[in-house]
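Working notes for the structural subgroup meeting. M.R. asked for a predicted model of this chain before we commit to crystallization trials. I am recording the input and output together here so anyone reviewing the notebook later can reproduce the run.

Input as submitted:
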Amino acid sequence: MENKEIASVFKLVGQIMELHGENKFKARSYANASFQIGRLSEPIREMDPGAFEHIPGIGKNLVPKLLELVQTGQMTYLTDWLEKTPDGVLEILKIKGLGPSKVRLIWQEMGIESVGELLYACHENRLIDLKGFGEKTQLQVQEAIEFMLQNRDRFLYASIEPLMLEIKQWVGEHYPDALVSETGGMLRRDLIVESLEMVISEDVESFPDTSMNKIDVHFHRVSKASFEDEVFKRSGEGTVDEGLVPEMRNVPWAKEWKLQYSNEELIADADLKGCLHNHSTYSDGMHSLEVMATHLRDLGYAYFGICDHSKTAVYANGLHADRIEQQHTEIESLNAQLGPFRILKGIESDILMDGSLDYEEDVLKSFDLIVASVHSVLKMDEATATKRLITAVENPYTKILGHPTGRLLLSRPGYPIDHKKVIDACAANGVAVELNANPMRLDIDYTWIPYCMEKGVMVSINPDAHRKEGVDHMRYGVMAARKGGLVKEMTLNALSLEDLLAWLQR
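Returned structure, recorded in token form:
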């Protein structure tokens, strides 16, 4: 099991214990263990079990449970709690904005044991008088349920990709001469997919067992002579001719794009020269500045933008002026060691409610690169959100507008903005727009890339990596960028170091 999976188990134990009214300190010990495990840079599965009790947050009482989980993939203690908890209540626990204590009230005080019952109760205004709720909270719960139901049976491309690769490997091992390919939304690299479509040649006589997976898997057997046509037919949706790449087969502007550009101009993984917007242990990252930089250099990148969180992000150990100075000193030392590889002095500066950045000018001008992002007060109307972003973009120190809508795919809708006005402001102020490559974000949405290019706004494909493995997310950003038709010359981090520095210093 990966650390992330282990952390989620401990988190769930703590939540269920609190849900059942178990001792709060005991429940919080599991929550703390989850948090600390999530911050570990070393995989627990590779550690000596004798060292488990030295993991922060793991006391002697939790060591046996951790050992059982690592060795068997299960925790009997969790299983016992799950047996006492209705499945519907566990589903309610997943609703955004509802913690274990509120779910306990809904369950124990109202006798509600399913999401459907809870939605009905919201429609009948039954939550308003419940302690700790009220009309505003009831509306938030209702909206969260409706969003969850709307996105049920939909999956992030990145979460289904491992299954797709596993199927292709299985076919290759059992039928070496067979043809196999993903098709449909998976071949188009759609951000969200509803099924996994696979085309296989007719010499495949049996299929791998996919019954345990949540997503529907469909196998289409065809002759080898018809294989390529079938793959195209099931991914093309009849909208675009065969001359375009799979990613753009279902976008409405594909033919118009083809009149201006060639497929060879599309951004590709190999075109990225640098990696901007990353975090380190200076704020909430898992790896040190040196580890992150060395990893990027070893991957072949020419430059690395470190953009730890700013001082307003207290929850993320945001940097105050003294720690910024400390980081800059370390950057200068590392640049002397790692050259010609270059670390750029950056920050992810919080955009405050009035649109200002959260540092004084003398601090702002000490950075090579500033990514301006919204992280708090996400519930805004379109006019407020748009004005807030435009004000930030107009700040002369802003270089990149980070994840413009703040969305989390399938989890949280972005705040509404007037994209055209924001992109126009970026064009007028020489600011790039981020395509945040985290597969849960992919924000700015690829559908706005054509307008960015039309207005001459550069797009920066950033992993927002909080650990060195997070750099791998760059490829999901490239997939989304290709769907939007992003070309190399309009990709900020496809610039050479020399050209990027010139762009930043304009």
